[in-house]
Design brief:
Blueprint: E1 2-5, H1 20-28, E2 32-36, H2 47-52, E3 56-58, H3 61-67, E4 70-72, E5 90-93, H4 101-110, E6 113-116, H5 131-148, E7 170-174, H6 178-189, E8 193-198, H7 201-210, E9 215-219, H8 222-229, E10 234-237, H9 252-255, E11 263-266, E12 287-290, E13 293-296, H10 306-335, H11 337-340, E14 343-346, E15 349-350, H12 353-358
Parallel strand pairs: 1-2, 1-4, 2-3, 4-5, 5-6, 7-8, 7-10, 8-9, 10-11, 11-13
Antiparallel strand pairs: 6-14, 12-13, 14-15
Helix pairs in contact: 5-6
Length: 376
């Protein structure tokens, strides 16, 4: 199989989908790898590293898209890339379709096969290709939130860890999954008062056993959220419904309960966000203010630390990429249920329930396509 790695062109995106080590593994098993010139520079990998690993360096993304049978990316294709996608081509990347109807309908029209990192799901419910970036984003959320709490940035002027004689800041984390857990660890490590809210009692019991004493666990209800936001200094949105749009847990009306200078970091923004007033921002222009509340909504937060993020991501994605290359996507999915759950679109049809429901589109079972020779 010929695998193509184009340079990411989403604003402020410096990650790359394949490291030189990954390229070497694929070429070593007989596959071709073509990498757009400069694709790895943002993560610290120069073209000569890829060439030493057996990859071909090509000068334009057009050549990558035109020739590759499987495209590996980090972020979803953006509008300038849409015309380059070919019928029957396999794309393996983050898509977050449920938050972008135009992108979803593009894949219905172009009849490519989309395997989404974020919906590959193990029998345990773990999302192995989302987990590493959720870990990065959760930790970054506290780091970024702490910065914007500073008064020169428009924040409350609160030091999360406090000092002797001064109460530490309060961090409210909505969601006790991977993002929320990592955010809580970081905030607790700084000495903040941390409150995690979730609707899963078993998860709350687990976190109660594993988190430090300055982390409190609360069952999430609308009433409880409204009470907690009143005195929170930093609010972190960390809610995830795999493959579906995130629910709005904080409304525009709720902002009126917060103190001016409160900071919201909505990590769920790439799935539509869990705050009604959230909209995606970039690393170059990361915040905006609504009703005196600072909103941080960078949709590719891990892209800000690309060296760490690329290594963490590719550690997880490479075994699946090798399986797809060695077996073809149909056989790989037949033999691996987790990977099969990653298939979101095939031959003009949506095959993931959360995406179909988000836009009231027809849903087809991916099993309908696994035995079709035309899709091998």
């Amino acid at each position: 199989m010929l695998i193509g790695v184009p340079k990411e062109i989403k604003p402020d995106e410096y990650r790359v989908a394949l490291t030189p080590a990954g390229a070497e593994m694929l070429t070593g098993t007989g596959h071709g790898v073509m990498v757009e010139a400069g694709a790895g520079l943002g993560s610290g990998f120069t073209d000569d590293f890829y060439e030493s690993a057996g990859a071909d360096i090509v000068s334009t993304s057009d050549e990558v898209w035109a020739r590759a049978e499987m495209i590996m990316k980090v972020k979803e294709p953006i509008r300038p890339e849409w015309p380059k996608i070919r019928e029957g081509q396999l794309l393996f990347t983050y898509f977050h379709f449920a938050a972008d109807e135009d992108l979803t309908r593009t894949f219905v029209d172009n009849k490519a096969t989309a395997i989404a990192y974020e919906t590959v799901e193990l029998p345990s419910g773990e999302l192995p290709l989302l987990t590493p970036m959720s870990e990065v984003a959760g930790r970054m959320a506290v780091q970024e939130g702490a910065k914007y709490l500073e008064k020169p940035q428009g924040g409350l002027g609160v030091l999360l860890g406090g000092v002797p004689g001064v109460l530490p800041g309060k961090v409210l984390v909505l969601g006790g999954g991977v993002v929320g857990t990592n955010a809580a660890k970081m905030a607790a490590g700084l000495g903040a008062r941390v409150h995690i809210m979730d609707i899963n009692l078993n998860r709350l019991r687990y976190l109660d056993d594993t988190m430090p004493a300055n982390v409190n666990l609360l069952f999430s209800t609308r009433y409880a959220i409204r009470k907690q936001v009143e005195d929170a200094d930093l609010i972190i949105g960390a809610v995830l419904i795999p493959g579906a749009k995130a629910p709005n847990l904080i409304t525009r009306e709720d902002l009126g309960l917060m103190r001016p200078g409160t900071v919201i970091v909505d990590v769920a923004v790439d799935q539509g966000g869990c705050v009604e007033t959230i909209k995606p921002t970039t690393h170059h222009d990361p915040v905006y203010v609504v009703d005196d509340v600072i909103h941080y909504a960078v949709a590719n937060m891990p892209g800000g630390v690309p060296r760490t993020s690329t290594l963490a991501l590719t550690n997880a994605t490479l075994p699946y990429a090798v399986s797809l290359a060695n077996k073809g996507w149909q056989r790989a999915c037949r033999e691996d249920r987790a990977l099969k759950l990653g298939v979101n679109a095939v031959d003009g049809h949506i095959t993931y329930r959360g995406v179909a429901e988000a836009f009231d589109m027809d849903l087809r079972s991916v099993d309908d396509f696994l035995d079709s020779p035309a899709q091998a």
